[in-house]
Amino acid sequence: MIIDAHTHVHPDADGLGDRYDARLENLLANLAASEVDKAVIYAEAVDVPYIKRIENDYVGACCAQHPDTLIGFASVHPLEPDPVKTFEEAVRRYGLKGLKLHPRFQGVAADDPRVAPLARKAAELDLPVAIDALLWKPTPLKLQLPINVDGLCKQVPEARIIMAHAGGFHFLDTLAVAIANPNVHLEISVALTFFHGTPFEDQFMFALKQLGPKRLIYGSDFPQKPMQASLDESRAILKKHGFSDADLEWILGKTFLSLLPGENA
Ligand SMILES: [Zn+2]
User: Fold this and answer.
1) How many CB atoms lie within 10 A of CB 252?
2) CATH node for 3-258
3) Residue 106: HSE in the Cβ half-sphere, 13 Å Cα cutoff
4) Residue 9 Cα, ligand 1 centroid: separation in angstroms?
5) What's the 80 CA to ligand 1 centre distance in angstroms?
6) pLDDT tens figures, 70-116
7) What is the spatial distance between Cα 63 and Cα 38, in angstroms, rounded to a whole number?
């Protein structure tokens, strides 16, 4: 079972910027043409120049049409009125399997006390929380720092956290957060291929190896590249650095499945 734990679809073809085809049909065609069995798609309660908001009901409808291949995560903005209620309703109404938080686009740090009730609700519902941790534009970088996730974990130690993009330029901070908090897992999209072939490749891989395959989750950030091409590239980098076929089974699916309720890894 191969799971791509970080993909995006949008009802508008240019919903993720005019360089990408964001349509569901494109994702489904890529899934059919690849070894990937399931894709995680995220709602995004955000308001930024490069991507349009992705609603929970849209993600829910996609998953309802393709229950064997799509796994949906809900999104709410932590500063909207009653976000915990909105999140719980999205989970119950659409069968969504997790919560996506986006400090970089939402402009709310992971350790903001207004985020903790959302993580607490996710834990109560037995669902993981994916938190963007890339460090990029457009909000203040201080709000995006991976170390902020440690603050959230200290407030809600029972939360199961996925740090998307493994911390980007701050991958060593992300390693420290994951060492300090056993419920933190790293999703490696963008960062793995970004550092490949740079002076930081070995250092990034050092961080991944410190944690081991049961703390690592494969994702591609599709539609940035064709789905199979991302898988081939990522698998080659991981193998080059000594991850075994058994390790890859965890990274490419079992680790993510172990975070879902009622799934057997
Ligand atoms: Zn993404």
Assistant:
1) 25
2) 3.20.20.140
3) 23
4) 10
5) 22
6) 999 999 999 999 999 999 999 999 999 999 999 999 999 999 999 99
7) 11
164 CA distance to ligand 1 middle (Å)? 8
pLDDT, one tens digit per residue, over 244-258 is 999 999 999 999 999
Q: Do residues 110 and 101 touch, judged by C-beta distance below 8 A?
A: yes
From ligand 1's centre to the CA of 156, what distance in Å? Answer: 24
User: Residue 164: CB partners within 8 Å, gap ≥ 6?
Assistant: 6, 130, 131, 132, 133, 134, 187, 189, 219
Angle at 50 between CA 48 and CA 55, to 5 degrees: 65
Question: At residue 45, what are phi and psi to the nearest 5 degrees?
Answer: -85, 75
| pLDDT of res. 263 | 63
Question: Is 192 in a helix, a strand, or coil?
Answer: helix
Q: pLDDT for 118-168, tens place per residue?
A: 999 999 999 999 999 999 999 999 999 999 999 999 999 999 999 999 999
Residue 40 Cα to ligand 1 middle (Å): 11
User: From the CA of 170, how far away is ligand 1's center (Å)?
Assistant: 17
Q: No. of H helices and E strands in the chain?
A: 13, 8
- 117, burial (CB in 10 Å: exposed 0-12, middle 13-18, buried 19+): middle
Centre of ligand 1 to C-alpha 222, Å, is 7
How confident is residue 264, by pLDDT bands cut at 50, 70 and 90? very low
Q: Give Cβ neighbours of residue 176 (< 8 Å, ≥ 6 apart).
A: 147, 150
pLDDT(262) > 80: no
